[in-house]
Amino acid sequence: MTDASANRASDADGKVGVVIVAAGRGARAGQADGPKQYQRIGGRAVIAHTLETFLSHPRIGPVVVAIHADDAELFERAAGANAKRVFAVTGGSSRQASVRLGLLALRESAPAKVLVHDAVRPFLDVGLIDRTIDAIGERQGALPALPVADTLKRESATGMIEETVSRAGLHAAQTPQGFPFWPLLAAHEKAHHLGKTDEFTDDAAIAEWARIPVKIVTGSPDNVKLTWARDIAMADQRLSNALPRFPDIRTGNGYDVHAFEPGDHVTLCGVAIPYDRKLSGHSDADVGLHALTDALLATCGAGDIGTHFPPSDPQWKGVASKIFVEHAAKLVRERGGRIANADITLICEAPRVGPHREAMTEALAAMLGIAPERISIKATTNEKLGFVGRGEGIAAIATASVVYPGDVPA
Ligand SMILES: Nc1ccn([C@@H]2O[C@H](COP(=O)(O)OP(=O)(O)OP(=O)(O)O)[C@@H](O)[C@H]2O)c(=O)n1
Ligand SMILES: C[C@](O)(CO)[C@H](O)COP(=O)(O)O
C-alpha cells in the first residue's frame, strides 16, 4: 500500500475516485490455482488489465482496490508496479460489503464522484468510463447497461417454463457504475447499519433503494464479466488473437561441390545432360539436389544429407539423388511444413544449363510437390577463377523457404 497522500485527490482537481472490488472467491469459475481476478489472460492477470485502464485515464484520481485477506501476495504480484499506485484494503464477505469498505477508504480523499467496478471486467474502455462519469450528477448515479437481447423465460420449480417475460425496457447492468461519492457512501452505510449487508448485487440497486436516481448510459458489449472458466479461456483467446503474430517462416541454405571425372553426362537437378565428363560421387553426384536436400533439412533442424544418407552406406551407391530430396521434403511435411519456394544456383563453366532449365524446374516441382513458379534454377560461371573456373568440378548453392504451423514462440 502506498503513502495515502501521494494519491489523494480532492474535489478541487475534479478527479474521480474509483473502487475496484476484487475480494471474491470466484467459486463459479472454479479455478484451482486462485480466484479469477488473478488468472492470466493475454499474458497478464485479469486485474492487471483492469487497473491499467483506470490508472492511465486522465480523469481518474485515487483508486482503492478491495482484496481478500488471503490475497495480498497474489495482488502484489498481479498488479506489479501499479500496486504502489492504488490503496489496497481488505474486502468483505459480499460484493456489497467490499464496495462499502472501499468507499470508506476513499473518505479521506473525498472525491466528488466515484466509480465502482468489478475487477473481473477487464475489457472496459476509456469511452465507457467517460460516458459514465459524464452522466453522474449531484444526486444522480450512472449505470452502463445494454438492452437485453434474448427472449426471457421464467422457470418453474419443476424445470418447466412458467412464463415468457417481456424484455421491453430490460437492460443488463455492467460496471463501472458511477455516483456522487457522499450519497453512495451514505446509502451503503445505511444498508450496513440496517443489517442489509449482502442483498444488493450492484450499486445501482443500493442507489435505487436509497432513492438516488440512476441514469442508464450505453454499455459496451466487450465489457463482459468473467464469471465462468469458459469466460476466462475466451478472454485469453481474444487477447492472444489481438497480439501481433509472427508466422513460423524458416529459410535453409545448402552448398555442395563435386569434381569431374571421365564420363559422358552429368546429372543436374534431376536432368541428365550429355557432356564429355561426369561428376564423381557415391550417388549420381547431382550437386544441385544435394545442396537443396541440405537446405530443406536445415528448415527443420534435421541435420544434413550425410546424417540421413551416409556415403559409407553401400545402399546409396549410384542412386538417383531425387530420393534424397524427396526424403527431406517428406520430413518437412511430417512436421506440418509447406515448402514456399526453392532456389538453386549452379556454378560451372560448362555444360550450359539454360537449355535444360525448364526440364529441371519440372523435375523439381514433381519432387517437392509444389508449383513450378515456386522453383528457381539459375546458373553462373565462376569467371574462370578457382577450381570451378578451371573446369575441375561444379558447385551449387540452394535456398529453401518453408512455412511451419503456428507462430514463432515469444
Ligand atoms: N465478497 C466479495 C465478492 C465479490 N467481490 C467482487 O465482485 C466482483 C463481481 O463478483 P462475482 O463475479 O460474483 O465474483 P465472485 O464472487 O468472485 O464469483 P463467485 O460468485 O463465482 O464466487 C468480482 O470482481 C469480485 O471479486 C468482492 O470484492 N467481494
Ligand atoms: C455488479 C455486476 O457486475 C452488474 O452486472 C454484477 O451484478 C456482479 O456480479 P454478481 O454475480 O451479481 O456478484
UniProtKB/TrEMBL annotation:
Where are the residues of the annotated region 2-C-methyl-D-erythritol 2,4-cyclodiphosphate synthase?
Answer: 250-410
CDD domains per the UniProt record, alphabetical: CDP-ME_synthetase (cd02516), MECDP_synthase (cd00554)
In this chain, the site described as Positions MEP for the nucleophilic attack is at: 167, 225
Q: Give site residues, Transition state stabilizer.
A: 28, 36, 282, 381
Coiled-coil region = none
Binding positions (a divalent metal cation): 256, 258, 290
* Keywords from the UniProt entry: Isoprene biosynthesis, Lyase, Metal-binding, Multifunctional enzyme, Nucleotidyltransferase, Transferase
Q: Might you give the EC number(s) for this enzyme?
A: 2.7.7.60, 4.6.1.12
Residues that hold 4-CDP-2-C-methyl-D-erythritol 2-phosphate according to the record: 256-258, 282-283, 304-306, 380-383, 387, 390
List the catalytic activities from the record: 2-C-methyl-D-erythritol 4-phosphate + CTP + H(+) = 4-CDP-2-C-methyl-D-erythritol + diphosphate; 4-CDP-2-C-methyl-D-erythritol 2-phosphate = 2-C-methyl-D-erythritol 2,4-cyclic diphosphate + CMP
GO MF annotation terms: 2-C-methyl-D-erythritol 2,4-cyclodiphosphate synthase activity; 2-C-methyl-D-erythritol 4-phosphate cytidylyltransferase activity
**PANTHER family in alphabetical order:** 2-C-METHYL-D-ERYTHRITOL 2,4-CYCLODIPHOSPHATE SYNTHASE, CHLOROPLASTIC
Q: Which family does it belong to?
A: Belongs to the IspF family. Belongs to the IspD/TarI cytidylyltransferase family. IspD subfamily.
Role, per record: Bifunctional enzyme that catalyzes the formation of 4-diphosphocytidyl-2-C-methyl-D-erythritol from CTP and 2-C-methyl-D-erythritol 4-phosphate (MEP) (IspD), and catalyzes the conversion of 4-diphosphocytidyl-2-C-methyl-D-erythritol 2-phosphate (CDP-ME2P) to 2-C-methyl-D-erythritol 2,4-cyclodiphosphate (ME-CPP) with a corresponding release of cytidine 5-monophosphate (CMP) (IspF).
Q: What is this protein called?
A: Bifunctional enzyme IspD/IspF
Q: Which species is the source of this protein?
A: Mesorhizobium dulcispinae
Which gene produces this protein? ispDF
